[in-house]
Every structure is written in C-alpha cells, then in structure tokens.
Write a structure and sequence with these properties.
Chain lengths: 487, 113
C-alpha cells in the first residue's frame, strides 16, 4: 500500500484532484507516521484535532472544484514561528506555555494556500545551535541513524521531511539552520535572500540575519512552498518589495554556459575528505551539463565565524531582553522583588547555550568593548559581503560550496565544546552575513554512511538560478530518491 | 580575558543568575569565544564602513493608537476598518499568556514603597 505520508507535493495534488484519496486520509497518514516515529522527537507538539478538522474542510473545497498547488498538503512548522492558538515554545522552557494570539505571516500564507499544519517542530532553543541538542524538549535524532544529530537549529523540520512524515516543513536560517540540517538529513533546504520572506511572527534570534525558508524531499516541492511564502509584508519593515518570480518555471531549464564559482578558500584546512570528494563529483555533473566551473576567491571566509559570534549574540542579547516573566512565558514563583523575579524567571527559563550567548552579546555591546568587538565585526561583515559582490560581478553566476566541513556527527560528540560546534557553520554563515540566497541539496553519503549536501549560493534575489541548477543536478543523480530505512 | 567576577557582574546586568557550579565552565567558554574572535584584530578595517543591515532598512513609523479596549478579558468586538485584521490583537488572547493578572491588569512585584 502506498505510504501517503511519503508522497511528494505533486503526487498529493494529483491524488486529491483525481479523488484517489482525500485530504483527511493524507493528513491521518502523516499524523500516524509522526506517532510511529515518535522516538525521533521531531515534533514538540502534534496538532491532530485541528489538522483533521482543517483537512475535512479542505476535502469539501476540493469536492466543490477548488484547486491549488498546495491545497491539502500536510506540512510542519518550526516551533519558533507563531501559530495562533497553538503553543509556540521556540524550543525553550521559558515559553513552555506561550500561546500566540496571532499567526506569523508565513503561516497565514500557507493556510491561505490550503496546507494543513500537523504540528510544531523541535529545534535548538531560540534557534541557537547546530545539532538540536539545545532543545528544552530533548534532542531530535537523525532518521538515517538515531545515534547521530539531524543538524540544527531546524533539526525537527529536516528530520520530519527525511523520515517521510510530511513532504515539506518550514525552518529558519540565521547562520545555516536550514542548510546544515538539510545536508545532514539528505534533503533540500533553501534560505531565501534576506528580505524575501516576512519575519513577522517569527520569534527573533538575530534580526539582521534571520530568514524563513522551506525544507522538502525534492527541488520542485521546495520551489512550490517557497513560492507561497515569499513577498513583501507591511508588517515587516525588513521585507522588500521585490517581484517574486514563478520558481517552478526555473525547473528543468538548461544550465549550459552558466559560470559556477568554486571558492578556493573553501577547500583549505578542515574540509573532510569525503565532503571534498562528493563536491568534486557534483561539480563534474554540472560540467557535464554544460556549466563552466571557475575558481573564485572569497578571501575573508575564515573570519565569518568570528563576525557571526559577535553580531548574532549581540542581537540576541537585545532580542531576548523581552523575556522577563512579566507579560508571557515562565515566571519564577515566590514573593520576589522585581530584579530577582527577572533574574530567576530568565535563569530558570533559558538553557545554557542561550545564557552563554546572552553573556557574550552583552559583553561585546558594553561600553569599552563596543568598538573593539561589535563595530569591528560590522566592518568585517562589509568585507565578507564585498567578497561575494566581487565574485558575482563578472566572474560567476552562482557559487557551489560544501554545506558543512564534515559529515554528521554523533549526539554528544561536540556539545561540551561550544567553539568546535560553532566552527561547523563556517560555510553557511557568510551567506547570512551577506544576505544572499543559499540552498543545500543532497549529493551523497559520508564515510559514516550519513548524508552530505552541497550548497548553491546565488546573487541577491536570484533564487531562480539556484532552483534551475539544483533541478538540473537532481535530474542527473538519484540522491534525492534514497530514503532512510525506518522501523 | 574575562574573570569569573566579571562574568557574574555581566550576568547581573543581563538579569541572569548563573548556577555557582557553572560559573567556571561558562567563564571558560566565554573566554575561548572571545579569544577566537580576536582574529579580527589582524584585519585592517580603517577604510571600511560598518554594515548593520543587508538592505540598509529604515524605520517605519506610525501613530501609536489604542485599537483594543474594554474591561472584559474575553475577546472583544473590534471594528476599525483601517486596521488590518492581523494587527488587531485582542486583549483576552493576550492576557491568557500573562503569568499573573487581575482583570485586565498584569500583577507585578511592588516597585515603589
């Protein structure tokens, strides 16, 4: 019997329109699979009742002749994105009881498109982490091997798609939190250009870097969901009024003559042999399709992690000041004076990594250190952005790079050394600092048998080229068809 | 380098209470991070402008208006046609998240004797 939960979006659309199955059946299949695979810990909360109610409503619409690219498609939402009336924790104990009074714009858009949200996905607390081990609700396990991390911070979003629970999920990416877990779980994940997607209703981590994007098991599904969430939103002043092209039209276009930049700095120390070999093979595939590999230089790459771990904690320490136990979230109990109430509520509510980043952020913003750390990092951020501008100006049309320096690691392997964990984001962070679109697509398996991905980086607003190259690569390879063996 | 005392002072300013047994550990972590990011010192940025934002966004200002009023913690009927539905947060839904409230008022510790 067909596993309805593992169908692609296109297959769901076809099945619904031809009445092979109903939206209620697809939704039930997704919910059942999520229950069956509970040990992966993908979801913080499943919304079975509301999902089924919604599915029945959609079945009525379908019977009445309504159509749409995402109509009746089950999806999951990262728990940092506000859902009206549905608990939203951001993976933190401090928001264990928070019920948003409104939907994030991306959620509203997906609901309008007729998708069915089956639940809220596990994540590193406040999106701070690269392994999902920082969740207050327990780590997510990699569907390919439960001893390994699924990546982070959108680990639940990636694992749910890789496990075939639902065809697409939403995540957020501040320093690689969509692309790295997509790579670790062997699926497709796109971080759109900064400003492409509204952040309204997304609990902020580092506002100048955060962006929402879609995970999917294949490039077309990723394009369909990305299409639905893009566009200027009057409720987010950082979203940009930029025309949104039809991404599906980019799929299947030839890539002959496209110049693919290969940054020489990404092949130096620290890049694992299996990653380097997989990347070289992927470049050969693109070359066979007529793309022209060119060497480019991004000389400030090695500084990106430093810049990020000054700017992101600085923004986080400001953003997280709002969690004070007064208006929402956890409040410490007892007769306490105001300062103690703040301190106790925050310390009981925030996990260790969040506290660490608040401290680092407060330090680099404090008078006496502001110029040396924060201002310096903002200046080097300019240099990193300029590296990309130079490469894209007249040398290449897109950049291909590893998504991560190494294949997935085991749960517990890196958690005691924050700096080692941070260095895992070396190839994804520069893209956020420059505000560019970046996509990870599966390109093979590491020596440990876990998936690895390649990253495609585009000019600002040029997601089309990423979709075009990704679909060309996908049509020549079968990595996206490999699925983990789940019991 | 930052000392354990400085970490504790910083924590107080950031309204955090660090568990005593964790103070040496987190001080070590913060120090290794601060030491690592000092690699930026070797870059000459004397002629570089700081970048705070990708698109150089500007503030969007609007008049601060009360669009939701009433004494009932239940959702209230609202009718300002100029305000998009999305912006109208109802006080009942907001108050449901308040850890301690009395009617429409949030209860806080005594601030002024």
């Amino acid at each position: 019997m067909t596993d309805l939960a593992a169908l692609s979006i296109s297959a769901i659309r076809e099945g619904l329109q031809s009445r092979q199955f109903s939206c209620a059946e697809v939704t039930t299949a997704a919910l059942k699979k999520a229950e069956k695979l509970k040990s992966l810990n993908c979801f913080i909360e499943l919304s079975a009742d509301s999902a089924l109610r919604q599915a029945h409503e959609i079945d009525i619409l379908i019977k009445a002749g309504k159509q749409g690219p995402l109509l009746g498609v089950p999806i999951g939402i990262k728990d940092v994105i506000c859902t009206k009336g549905v608990k939203t924790t951001a993976g933190s104990k401090i928001l264990h009881n928070f019920i948003p009074p409104y939907d994030a714009t991306v959620v509203r858009k997906l609901l309008t498109a007729g998708t069915v949200s089956i639940g809220k996905l596990n994540m590193d607390e406040f999106a701070m982490g690269s392994s999902n081990e920082n969740s207050a609700y327990g780590p997510v396990k990699n569907p390919w091997n439960p001893e390994y991390v699924p990546g982070g911070s959108s680990g639940g979003s990636a694992a749910a798609v890789a496990a075939g629970i639902c065809p697409s999920t939403l995540g957020t990416d501040t320093g690689g939190s969509i692309r790295q877990p997509a790579s670790f779980c062997g699926i497709v994940g796109l971080k759109p250009t900064y400003g492409r997607v509204s952040r309204y209703g997304v609990i902020a981590y580092a506002s100048s870097l955060d962006q929402v994007g879609a995970f999917a098991a294949n490039v077309r599904d990723c394009a369909l969901v990305t299409q639905a969430i893009c566009g200027r939103d009057p409720n987010d002043a950082t979203s940009v009024d930029q025309a949104v092209p039809d991404f599906e039209k980019s799929l299947g276009l030839p890539i002959k003559g496209l110049r693919v930049g290969i940054p020489k700095e990404y092949f130096v120390t620290g890049l694992a042999g299996d990653i380097s070999a997989a990347l070289k093979k992927a470049i050969q595939v693109l070359e066979r399709l007529g793309a022209i590999p060119v060497e480019v230089s991004l000389p400030h790459t090695e500084l990106a992690v430093s810049v990020y771990y000054i700017l992101a904690p600085a923004e986080a320490s400001s953003n997280l000041a709002r969690f004070d136990g007064i208006r929402y979230g956890h409040r410490a109990s007892g007769q306490l004076d105001l300062k103690t109430l703040y301190a106790k509520s925050r310390s009981e509510g925030f996990g260790k990594e969040v506290q660490r980043r608040i401290l680092v952020g407060s330090y680099v913003l404090s008078s006496g250190y502001y110029d040396a750390f924060y201002l310096k990092a903002q200046k080097v951020r300019s240099l990193i952005a300029q590296d990309f501008q130079t490469a894209f100006k007249d040398q290449c049309d897109l950049i291909i790079a590893p998504t991560t320096p190494a294949a997935p690691f085991k749960i517990g392997e890196k958690i005691s050394d924050p700096l080692q964990m941070y260095l895992n984001d070396i190839f994804t962070i520069p893209v956020n600092l420059a505000g560019l679109p970046g996509m990870s697509i599966p390109c093979g398996f590491g020596d440990n048998g876990l998936p690895i991905g390649i990253q495609l980086i585009g000019r600002p607003w040029d997601e089309e080229t990423l979709f075009r190259v990704a679909s060309a690569y996908e049509s020549e390879t079968d990595w996206h068809t490999r699925k983990p063996a789940l019991n | 380098m930052i000392s354990e005392e400085e970490v504790l002072k910083l924590a107080t300013l950031a309204r955090l209470e660090i568990e005593p047994s964790f103070v040496p550990v987190i001080t070590g972590h913060v120090n290794s991070i601060l030491q690592y990011v000092q690699q930026l010192d070797k870059v000459d940025t004397s002629a570089v402008a700081p970048m705070s934002h990708v698109h150089g966004a500007n503030n969007v200002l609007r008049e601060d208006r009360v669009i939701c009023a009433g004494t009932n913690p239940e959702p209230l009927p609202l009718g300002d046609p100029e305000v998009p539905q999305q912006e109208m947060l109802q006080s009942g839904a907001l108050l449901r998240n308040v850890p301690d409230h009395s009617g429409r008022f949030i209860r806080v510790p005594l601030i002024v004797e």
